[in-house]
Design a protein that fits this description.
Length: about 250
């Protein structure tokens, strides 16, 4: 048993797994997600805590979280001054204390059944488990527009040199050994949807053991991704990586 787990068991108030959920104007989608996580956690073998990072939602996102949770899981709602999914996930990870930390989207595009095999991989000695919609064994049903799909294709081509043989950097489901996550996120800066590319690059270059886990991704309605605005900032962030990152 790794020593951090022994230490952890001595302080049971920190859950074994903390899940970070970035949430921007998610009142329509997050209630179902939180309820599903509570349901899943009630049968899981590990203890789970939630860190919801809400920066500037103009709706009832946080009330929905509390209503759906109804005291079942420890939930922290963390604020973040900087906008963007990357900034939000970083704030959540920095806030975490657990021996295992992960993040997932508020729309539950990756089924929760992926958590158990991801934790198994961490227990087996991997440091970083990347959900992948594109590696063998995954299913990926997309109903995205041609513009969005073309954008993703270009994004993947440009990102490729930074992420080695990783097939899918942009899947919103990733689990880490907690200390690895906290180190990686201290060394990364991107705030947009492109942040995962930098996270994967730093993880690989630092020598963490990185593995992809095939997931059954389902497209969810109500995307917060605005193809023009978020597309532009994602490509701008990729261009910034050219100046700061070495290829993986
Ligand atoms: N806190 C915070 N969360 C964000 C921000 N932008 C996106 N998110 C969250 O990031 C997660 C992923 O966003 P989605 O809108 O599902 O986008 P996506 O999954 O990349 O794209 P789709 O395939 O269109 O769903 C969701 O949980 C969003 O609420 C932001 O600026 N701040
Ligand atoms: Mg989504």
């Amino acid at each position: 048993v790794p020593s951090y787990l022994l230490t952890h068991r001595a302080y049971p108030s920190v859950p074994e797994l903390e899940l970070v959920i970035p949430a921007l104007n998610e009142e329509g989608r997050i209630e179902r997600t939180i309820a599903a996580i509570c349901e899943w956690a009630s049968e899981a073998t590990c203890s789970v805590g939630l860190i919801v990072v809400d920066n500037g939602s103009a709706d009832a996102t946080t009330e929905c979280v509390d209503r759906a949770n109804a005291g079942r899981l420890p939930v922290e709602i963390v604020g973040c001054r900087v906008r963007g999914k990357g900034a939000a996930v970083r704030a959540g990870v920095k806030h975490s204390n657990a021996p295992y930390v992960g993040f997932c989207d508020a729309d539950l595009a990756t089924p929760l059944s992926a958590i158990t095999p991801a934790l198994d991989l961490l227990h087996q000695g991997w440091d970083v488990v990347l959900g992948s919609r594109l590696c063998p064994g995954a299913t990926y049903a997309v109903s995205q527009t041609l513009v969005r799909r073309s954008g993703s294709w270009c994004f993947r081509r440009i990102a490729r040199r930074y992420v080695g043989s990783v097939t899918d950097t942009q899947c919103g489901f990733k689990l880490f050994v907690g200390d690895a996550a906290r180190t990686i996120f201290t060394e990364t800066e991107l705030t947009s949807f492109a942040f995962d590319v930098e996270v994967v690059n730093v993880a690989l270059r630092r020598g963490y053991r990185v593995v992809e886990l095939p997931v059954d991704w389902s497209d969810q309605e109500g995307s917060t991704f605005r193809p023009l605005r978020d597309g532009i900032s994602s490509f701008r962030d990729l261009a910034q990586l050219r100046r700061t990152l070495e290829p993986a």
